[in-house]
Amino acid sequence: SLGEVFGGSKAHSGYTYDDIIVLPGEIDFGVESVTLESKVTRKISLRTPFVSSPMDTVTEATMAIGMAQHGGLGIIHYNMPIEDQVAEVRKVKTYKNGFISDPVVLAPHNTLSDLDAVKEKYGHYGIPVTIDGRLHSKLVGIVTKRDVDFQEDRSVLVDSVMTKDVVTIQEPVTLAQANARLADCKKGKLPVVNADGELVSLISRTDLRKARDYPLSTVAASGSLLCGAAVGTRPNDRIRLAALVEAGVDVVVLDSSQGDSCFQKDMVRWIKSTYPLLQVIGGNVVTRQQAKHLIDAGVDGLRVGMGVGSICTTQVVCACGRPQASAVYAVASYANSRGVPVIADGGVGNTGHIIKALMLGASCVMMGSMLAGTDEAPGEYFFQDGVRLKRYRGMGSLEAMSQGSDKRYFASQAKVKVAQGVSGTVPDKGPLATYIPYLRQGIAHGFQDMGVRDLDEMTSRAASGAIRVELRSPAAQKEGGVHGLHNYVLRTHA
Ligand code: XMP
């Protein structure tokens, strides 16, 4: 049983995901019967038990939107000024599937060279024109490819070429209504305006063709996508938090590498008394004692992991931390008994690790490196030695700390900055639209092998000892991976 392997409170050895292997159970259902619904906080459920890390190379609005559309949750990082983080949260909260909520806008006094620059950067024409070139201002025209095709002189003003008689649609409008209007008017772009004729969003014919349903979406009662954001635990983080709440954030993560601090407990109590409806995730913790302190303070969820992330050097630098399987098991067995879900944060490198985290009692996993190479992660792809890559860096790397993330490591006042993370690259993972379904399907196969249809069944079987786990020797771990080949091609999904 799990208790025998992890040794309860008398444990002297720590184990991580690769140290253990799960023995198969009996299958009496098809893989399509598996569901992955789980909780991320006391009050928030997810259909996909994945959370994206609040890191500046992982989660901004685009990632948070994609995660929520696929049933997970994104936590917007806070290595940026308050107003920028608020803007990212707003983008998620106001996002409407199929609607472009932050279109590029021009002003009548812009020139055709400005238009060329937009085309060069974003690859399309069909730019709405407002009185002052801003969104939420009066719409005065639209400039399309046909308006400018035969214009040799690029110093001509947009005002003199744009189409002033614009076909628009007024809010409130559903995607289906917009679709019908686009089909009707045969235009490429349809600006959405409010009752005062101000530009609110844009609908594009090409996007509409791509628009699809997201049946797993994580949505609030209002219909908006759920959004998380991270903040620190210093007194001035209360100002940041208030602004995020104003923008509609649903869940806040108190971001610290060592969560059992007076700063975090004070912050939790303050949030709970000031914003009783806001869900608060505390952490990070790796022991029951730390978990008890934060649960007593009032957290709704706990983030577990210290020094196990792919970019972390905390265990090397500070000697503190815990192998992740032991940490998840120890904290989850206690926190779950108090009704607080656990997020296994860091060290996830494959679907097997996710299944093991859930089997050990985690309600979901938080991932950094797994998601950093997707299209939705911040930053551009680039090639190195023929491989398409994106940058990924620890929030404790010197590069990230120089932008403010040193607060996570209680180091913002320190004269000497000590790195607790590194900066590197990860390979291209493609869009979340293909990557998340692959991860979900891999996990479903694992559940089926274990003979469990869902997380409840997994938890009760693990607790009763019906799910059996063994430790693996180093040779067994080697045997469990690809071995004995001269070379091979790793393709993970099709
Ligand atoms: P993965 O393994 O998913 O880990 O890439 C992501 C998690 O790692 C933590 N994190 C850090 N830990 N130094 C650390 O010790 C760092 O620089 C650092 N940056 C991120 C964080 O918990 C994240 O979710």
UniProtKB/TrEMBL annotation:
Activity modulation: Mycophenolic acid (MPA) is a non-competitive inhibitor that prevents formation of the closed enzyme conformation by binding to the same site as the amobile flap. In contrast, mizoribine monophosphate (MZP) is a competitive inhibitor that induces the closed conformation. MPA is a potent inhibitor of mammalian IMPDHs but a poor inhibitor of the bacterial enzymes. MZP is a more potent inhibitor of bacterial IMPDH.
Chief place of localization: cytoplasm
Enzyme class: oxidoreductase
Residues engaged in binding IMP: S310, D345, G346, G347, G368, S369, Y392, R393, G394, M395, G396, Q420
GO molecular function list: IMP dehydrogenase activity; metal ion binding; nucleotide binding
InterPro entries according to UniProt: Aldolase_TIM, CBS_dom, CBS_dom_sf, IMP_DH, IMP_DH/GMP_Rdtase_CS, IMP_DH_GMPRt
Domain named CBS: residues: 99-160, 162-218
Active site: C312 (thioimidate intermediate), R408 (proton acceptor)
Entry keyword Oxidoreductase: yes
Catalyses which reaction(s): IMP + NAD(+) + H2O = XMP + NADH + H(+)
Alphabetical keyword list: CBS domain, Cytoplasm, GMP biosynthesis, Metal-binding, NAD, Oxidoreductase, Potassium, Purine biosynthesis
EC number: 1.1.1.205
Single Gene Ontology BP annotation: GMP biosynthetic process
HAMAP family assigned to the protein according to its UniProt record, in alphabetical order: IMPDH
Cited function: Catalyzes the conversion of inosine 5'-phosphate (IMP) to xanthosine 5'-phosphate (XMP), the first committed and rate-limiting step in the de novo synthesis of guanine nucleotides, and therefore plays an important role in the regulation of cell growth.
Family of the protein in this entry: Belongs to the IMPDH/GMPR family.
NCBIfam families referenced in this protein's UniProt entry, alphabetically: IMP_dehydrog
The name this protein goes by in its record: Inosine-5'-monophosphate dehydrogenase
